[in-house]
Amino acid sequence: MKIMPYTEARPRVYDSGEMKGTTARVVIGKADGANHFCMRVFELSEGAVSHHHAHPFEHEVFVHAGRGEILCEGAWVPVKKGDIIFIPENETHQLRNFNPDPLVFVCLIPSSAPEL
Known about the structure:
Blueprint: E1 11-14, E2 22-28, E3 37-44, E4 59-65, E5 67-72, E6 75-80, E7 84-87, E8 95-96, E9 103-110
Antiparallel strand pairs: 1-2, 2-3, 3-9, 4-7, 4-9, 5-6, 5-8
């Protein structure tokens, strides 16, 4: 069993490029013996965006803190603390934050996908 504050997981900080202002952490993954899923936590600072992409697997998102927007079928849709998001396989998506407080979200992916 693993119990810890997510902030203790090693951060990967993006300080340039498309994802500038984004911090990503694998909080539960292969190194923990997780054979079916990977849990990641992303923090987007004001003005930051996640990668604009699609992939051949579904994934699930829980907005832990803040407010932002997700690109859904070509339109930006507001999201906020407490919202859940289901992204089907092969659907293009991206999250962004234009608020002063960080947008923090938990993302679950299958273990067969790259962790970050």
